[in-house]
Design a protein that fits this description.
two-stranded antiparallel ribbon; seven-stranded mixed sheet; 25% helix; 9 strands; alpha+beta
């Protein structure tokens, strides 16, 4: 008699565990069934068509799955892009930056011919002067249409022009600089390589063409003159050019006309006009463009009415309404002194003064 788990007829002869024991280790999962090359027809199909009991299934496609194919394509695209970018070199190769040159400056006083004209109303002075059609403030220095160069983009050219204009505005039009003695608004725009020269110019000014404060900015002697009108008249131009693959230059040429009166006189004293012509040359490397700073390379200044006998190195000391220039040449000029530049002086044309 068989055990509780055996069939009623007992265990078949010839097989210790019965015929099914041979297949106990075989797992007939879904993938196994799908991989079968023969498929049995259903009973209904066999009754209808009298077909054989089984049919042969088409061979399964053994190609890559869609996900694997996409992954292979992405890897190929990424590899090709890396090769392309390496060949084209899209980024500018860094070059060693040259140290900034020291600023070379020339300040020329312009002596008036006769008395300096004056009027109670500054607007009346402007209306009767060559500055009648000038714009007010920074509007008188418009940015030109910027065009890319061989090695600099449109935005980089605009950055150079904008920085140059900012320096001109801060050093020529900012009231606290003109009569208040401040220098920081202009200093923060100077390339770090030139800061030692800039600081030495104000700490130890010298008429050597390198360390004159009036070569860096426009500043009047606060004990002598103050602004009679803050609407300074300006007419100027800017032009950018590429020097080489790592350098841009901006040339600025501007005329600035100030209405001045004696310090502390209030509205009682007459105002007079003072004219400054500044020709500046700026240089920019890529660090300067990124940091919004400039190398000031050349400063050529003509200013008047001034007396050639007075020192114009530290401050401009204007001749005001009704005053005349003192006779004589620039004070302290020694043409035999090789350590300093020979001072120059010009004559302020009559037509440059208002006709009042």
């Amino acid at each position: 008699m068989g055990g509780p788990g055996d069939p009623p007829e007992g265990t078949p002869e010839g097989a210790p565990g019965g015929g099914e024991d041979e297949y106990r280790s075989v797992v007939f999962d879904e993938s196994f069934v799908r991989a079968a090359r023969l498929q049995e027809f259903s009973a209904q199909e066999r009754m209808a068509d009298h077909a054989p009991a089984v049919r042969r299934r088409p061979a399964l496609r053994r190609g890559l799955s869609r996900q694997a194919l996409i992954l292979v394509m992405l890897i190929a695209v990424a590899f090709g892009t890396a090769i392309y970018m390496g060949v084209r070199h899209p980024y500018t190769t860094p070059t060693a930056q040259q140290p900034a040159e020291p600023l070379r400056m020339t300040v020329i006083p312009l002596s008036p011919q006769g008395k300096v004209p004056g009027a109670a109303d500054a607007e009346d002075l402007y209306a009767h002067s060559p500055a009648a059609q000038f714009s007010v403030g920074g509007e008188g220095i418009p940015l030109p249409a910027a065009r890319r160069t061989a090695h600099f983009s449109d935005s980089q050219v605009v950055a150079a022009l904008s920085t140059a204009k900012d320096y001109i505005v801060e050093s020529s039009l900012y009231p606290a600089v003109l009569t208040g003695g401040q220098i920081r608004p202009a200093r923060v725009l100077v390339d770090p390589d030139q800061l030692d020269q800039f600081d030495q110019s104000f700490e130890h000014p010298t008429a050597d063409g390198r360390h004159e404060p009036t070569g860096w900015l426009v500043r009047f002697d606060p004990s002598r003159a103050e602004l009679a009108d803050r609407k300074i008249r300006v007419q100027g131009t800017l032009q950018a050019t590429e020097v080489d693959s790592s350098t841009l230059e901006v040339t600025a040429d501007g005329t600035f006309v100030y209405a001045l009166r004696p310090t502390g006189s209030g509205d009682r004293a007459q105002a007079s006009l003072f004219t400054v012509r500044r020709e500046l040359q700026f240089r920019f490397d890529r660090d300067d463009l990124r940091m919004h700073q400039a190398q000031v390379i050349v400063s050529y200044v003509q200013a008047g009415p001034l007396s050639c006998a007075e020192d114009s190195v530290t401050h401009l000391r204007p001749l005001l309404a009704g005053q005349t220039a003192k006779a004589g040449g620039p004070a302290g000029t020694d043409p035999y002194a090789t350590g300093s530049a020979t001072a120059l002086c010009g004559s302020l044309a009559t037509g440059a003064q208002p006709k009042v």
